[in-house]
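Hi F.,

I've been meaning to write this up properly since the lab meeting, where we talked about keeping a consistent format for the predictions we share between groups. The idea is simple: the sequence comes first, exactly as it goes in, then the structure tokens exactly as they come out, then a line or two of notes. No screenshots and no reformatting. I'm using this chain as the first example so we have something concrete to point to.
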Amino acid sequence: GYGVYANSGGIAAVFTGNRFTQNGYGHIYLDVSRGAHFDHNRASGGGYDGIKVYGTDTTASVTFLGDSLEVLTYGAPIYLITFDTLAVDSVVIVGRGGETYLEGGRFASFRNTKFLDLNSTGLDVYAYPLDTTRLLLRNVEFRGPSPGICDQCANGVYSSYSVALDADTVTMANLYYGFYLWDSRVALNHASLDHYYYGLYTDCGSVTV
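Output, unedited:
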């Protein structure tokens, strides 16, 4: 099962300074309408997912501050559906098995955050049913494992549906795609990309770089 499972809706959740280890389906499952706040939690191991949050409407706000999240199998460290804003700051995400997945959100920001040991995708953003998701990256790092373990196996940021990306001071290393974006608008500044197959790959739709 989950470490914490709340499926009542209509709640606001706060998790501070907790440790979650080896939970079978995932560490936390929330169905909320008033948002969720996480700060300085440690979650490692476990089964399918790390922290899964379903917003019941588009007004939910979710924040992560100083958390450390690790999924060792094939699930999502963060899995977030239907939200207004997401703010992630000073978080370390070790995604050896899966990807941080965002769907149906208006705005998401990641600051001072690291995505490490990636062998799938660091951050997957899908705007639908909204027209677009605004994605802000500031001082964010995406790294695959050492090339001897898996050479250019993972992607940094992936979106198959409209994203307005504003990225500044982004570091990427040992990835297949640094950015893979469809039908998106891109502003990319002060990026450092090393050992990749495609640094910035854009497709299908009006893209401004």
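Notes:
The chain is about 0% helix and 65% strand.
Residues 35 and 60 are 4 Å apart (CA to CA).

If this format works for you, I'll send the rest the same way.

G.
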